[in-house]
Structures are given as structure tokens and as C-alpha cells.
Amino acid sequence: MDRRGLIRGAAAAAATGVLLPAARAQAAARADTDHPSAHWTPATSVNYTVSDRPAEYPVQYVVIHVTQETFADTIGIFQNPAKQVSAHYVVRSSDGCVAQCVRESNVAWHAGNWDYNTRSVGIEHEGWVDKPQYFTHAMYERSAALTARVCDRYGIPKDREHIIGHNEVPGADHTDPGLFWDWVRYIRLVNFA
What we know:
Elements: H1 3-19, H2 22-32, E1 39-40, E2 48-49, E3 61-66, H3 71-78, E4 89-91, E5 98-100, E6 107-108, H4 114-118, E7 120-125, H5 137-154, E8 163-165, H6 183-192
Parallel strand pairs: 1-5, 3-7, 3-8, 4-7
Antiparallel strand pairs: 2-6, 4-5
């Protein structure tokens, strides 16, 4: 193989490692994730609280977020100890790929409200609140399937009182998922997943 081919292959391997540690994620996906199709892409352990949910705290909500970042940058933020933020999952816009960053038994720091952090699973969605083109069919479908399984696992009703936006968390100063998030479509998909 020529030098250019080696460099191209190394760059592709490095990029895969940044987005999802390919070989390790595939091998670890079933053992280290709570959702069967998620790829384990862990947040740094200083960006969440180790817990024993639901024994320690009941899980009663799913909080829907929009990252205001790219998929890769969001994972990088969760892996940066200085950021002090995480979510359980991140869903990629282009293909609906799901990365799990925090085990559901632990408390992710996503809602900006400790009480809601302890009682919810946080799902981030790649994109920006003012750019509806990021809310793809693949993203809605895969996220809804994830939310449905979380609801089934913890007995959470699949309705808007229990599947809420970050903007609906008491004391939140965020606007996500924003005006372009299609709640009717999303809840319908969750209920048919």
C-alpha cells in the first residue's frame, strides 16, 4: 500500500475512533449499554453521579434535548472533565446512530435540576433548535425506539407529561428541543415503537 493509502486509512480509523470507537464499541455494545443498538461511548466519570437507579431514585421522565453541537463534539464535551455535563444518550442526525455515554443506573448531569437529573433519562439529539433539517426521519425513529424502551423498562407513561423537553424542566434556562421539534410525530412514534 502506498503512503497516501496508509495516511487515508489511519485518518479514517482515527475519525471512527473519535465518533465511536468502532471495534471496541461493537464488542462492548451489548454488554455495556442499556439499549441493544447503542454504542458505548462513555462520558468521563467526573461528569455524572454513580448511583443505583431505580433502587436509589425512581426513573419517571425522559428529557429530550438538542445539543447545539455536532454529534462528535457533544461526545467530546461529555468526555471533558472540565465541562461537568453529560446525558445518557446522544442520537446522530444523519443516520439515527445512538451513543450511550452514561449507564441508566447512574445520574447524568443533563437537566440543570438535580431532582430531575435523579429521576430522568436524558437523550441529546445532534443539531440546533433553529435548524429543523437536523431533525431527520432516522433521528426521530431511532430516538423514539430508544425512548419507548426506556419507558417500558421503568414503567414511564408514553405521554407528554413524562416525555418532556429540556425547556420544560423547572428552573431550566434552555429552549431545547425548540419550536421545530415535532412532538406529535415523536410521541406517536414512541407509542408505535
